[in-house]
Fold these 2 entries.
Entry 1:
Amino acid sequence: MSYRNCIIIVALALTLAATFVSAKPKSMTLPIAINKAVCRTVVEIDEDLDRIPKTIKVIKCAADPYEMCPAAKGLRMRCCGAFPLASGAQFSCTEVQDSVLVMKAKSFRPYVINVSVGCSCIRHSVSTAAESQ
């Protein structure tokens, strides 16, 4: 193979690699994401007429977030925990919260509230006790 062909192959490989690296995650609307999520969620509207903004969309874990999990041997599997790690780490559907700055409508006094923004499968670390010396 000639030197020129090697350069062309390397250039094509680098271009292909750059395409994968620069790929951006897909986006979808909230109703579609909720219908496709492993952890089931519910959307609620938090309304406070004495607050700006008056309404805030809240996305929480459903009462049974594992509703979509398949059954195994008559028992429900927890989708997130179906494949435990050797480290012992456990997965579970967990409500994700974020802080939102709002203000009182009459006094314009700002304050922060915690708002649930989703329900996601989160890995919870497991620590082992240190061996005594």
Note: Strands lie at 41-47, 51-52, 55-61, 71-72, 75-76, 90-104, 110-124.
Entry 2:
Amino acid sequence: MRVFLFPAAAPAGGCLKVIAEIKKSAKQGQMGAVKVMAKDLIRTQMSNFKVSHKSQTLKSTQAMGEAMKGVTKAMGQMNRQMNSPALHKIMQEFERQNEEMELVSEVMGDAIDDALQEDD
């Protein structure tokens, strides 16, 4: 008879003794005692699982906090290194050049269309 709530987890040393007692009581036909000990074993395993799960959650939260701390530091460094007025000036120049290129493209397209129409 196996009594494990979480079969993937190996039972603790104390649980092995309880399991042996459960088996012994079952062989002797003491089913009342078996039920009580089995419920106690399940409660113990549940408690161990909850503690383990909370510990894992805390470790994950701590790791996430450390990662966020590093990201925040890197973002702060980038903000200090970035020259906003110069970047703004570059973007304005890009927009001006882009508009100029679009105008030249449009004039060239119109000129080509006119030239092709004259040939007809």
Note: Residues 31-81 form the longest helix (51 residues).
